[in-house]
Amino acid sequence: MSTITNVTIDKAANIYFEGDVTSRSVTLEDGTHLTLGIMMPGEYEFNTQDAEKMEVTSGQLFVLLPEQTSWQEISGGQTFYVPSNSRFKVKVRTITDYCCSYLS
């Protein structure tokens, strides 16, 4: 989906890695939470509580998912999934725009 309607957006940004990764929290009309964000080029490691669906809307990155040994290339228009209670790494090659949906 390219647009989201009837939402509540937190004005305060979530800021990580000295500002190289930022996002805004969004609550949908049905109470579902997601974040919309930007990652600058660099290497980052994230922790999850809930399972996540990561939609890359533009840009390019490589992701190393839990229990995997090979990096997977992800470009704009592609999606990857991260299991709950895990860690994953990304190598962001170009400024990357993303939408993270929490799957609980």
UniProtKB/TrEMBL annotation:
InterPro entries listed in its UniProt record: Ppnp, RmlC-like_jellyroll, RmlC_Cupin_sf
E.C. number: 2.4.2.1, 2.4.2.2
Xref: Pfam families: Ppnp
UniProt xrefs under CDD domains: cupin_PpnP-like
Highest rank taxon of the organism: Bacteria
Keywords for the protein's UniProt record, in alphabetical order: Glycosyltransferase, Transferase
Catalytic reaction list: adenosine + phosphate = alpha-D-ribose 1-phosphate + adenine; cytidine + phosphate = cytosine + alpha-D-ribose 1-phosphate; xanthosine + phosphate = alpha-D-ribose 1-phosphate + xanthine; a purine D-ribonucleoside + phosphate = a purine nucleobase + alpha-D-ribose 1-phosphate
Enzyme class: transferase
GO molecular function: guanosine phosphorylase activity; purine-nucleoside phosphorylase activity; thymidine phosphorylase activity; uridine phosphorylase activity
GO cellular component: cytosol
Record SUPFAM superfamilies: RmlC-like cupins
Family of this protein: Belongs to the nucleoside phosphorylase PpnP family.
Function description: Catalyzes the phosphorolysis of diverse nucleosides, yielding D-ribose 1-phosphate and the respective free bases. Can use uridine, adenosine, guanosine, cytidine, thymidine, inosine and xanthosine as substrates. Also catalyzes the reverse reactions.
HAMAP family attached to this UniProt entry: Nucleos_phosphorylase_PpnP (MF_01537)
Name of this protein: Pyrimidine/purine nucleoside phosphorylase
Species whose genome carries this gene: Neptunomonas marina
Gene: ppnP
